[in-house]
Amino acid sequence: MFDNNIDTLVVLSGVNRYYFSKQETSFGCVILHEGEKIFLTDFRYIGHISKALNGWNVILTSGNQLYDAINSELTRLNAEVVGFEDKSLSVYEFTQLSNACGAFHFVPASGLIEAMRAIKTEEEIKKIAAAQIVAQKALTKVVPLIKPGITEREVAANLIYEMQILGAETYSFEPIVAFGDGSAVPHHKTSSKRKLEKNELVLIDMGAKVDGYCSDMTRTFCIGQPNEKLAKIHKIVLEAQEYALASIRAGITGHEADSFAREYITSHGYGKEFGHSLGHGVGLEIHEFPRLAAGSDVILKPNMIVTIEPGIYVEGLGGVRIEDFAVVKEDGLLNLTNFDKNINL
Q1: pTM
Q2: Containing H/E element for 110?
Q3: Which of 126, 133, 136, 157 has the highest Cβ tally under 10 A?
């Protein structure tokens, strides 16, 4: 089940508890050992978790007893090498854990969990695809509302409303809505004061969350007649994305995947204006392993889900990012995104 000689896994982060148990709680710990699955939680969840998790050992504890309870279970299991979430535990949490469980050898296991989560099951892919459909339907409903005079915040609020009406639990992340030169800031802060003017670019980065799983999509378009230079940039970004989508497949590295779009954009003179990586994994969280980035030696594997989002950002003028996300397959990518990419929607 595990590597690095790990015989037991202690899972404290909420997102990883959900991954292994499919139960969402604000408090608890999952312990995994060969032949046994344990869920420690408090009185708020004990009744529900006990009914929901057949075959699990569900144990009542409390906030000030959690680490002692973990120690008791590790002792009962005769655990030896215990994996812990080195990338998500705070120093305080790890100190509490190691002080209470000093008899056990703890080794980092975040990489192990990331690798497990990166390979999506067919059920997970269906949930992520459903989340993307919700996001696309929401954007379809909101685009006709985007006219000169509307604010970035109003667009974002309408997107959130429509996603929830269409069945999303919430959004994957707060939508980024950027008008005009604000689109030159990749993670622009959506403003309640910035109003759209005629012939400005609109950049929307958004996603829905359905059954715990996220979607992610960016479109850049113009209401009116786009600036000639920005129209050319849009064409370059779109062509770079199309080339990457057609070229990425299982077996290549994250660096190679990134290079398909990066080399195309660089050849058109905008290499310095493409300052972020090509993409990232998506699943229970909006940013997951793997990264499609320069220098990334991760090997892409079938059923990883990754974003393909090249961009060019010209300070003072504007920026273009076009983002789809897709399932990695042996012979290419299965694109889960189906939304118009034209500069005039």
Answers
A1: 0.95
A2: helix 110-118
A3: 136
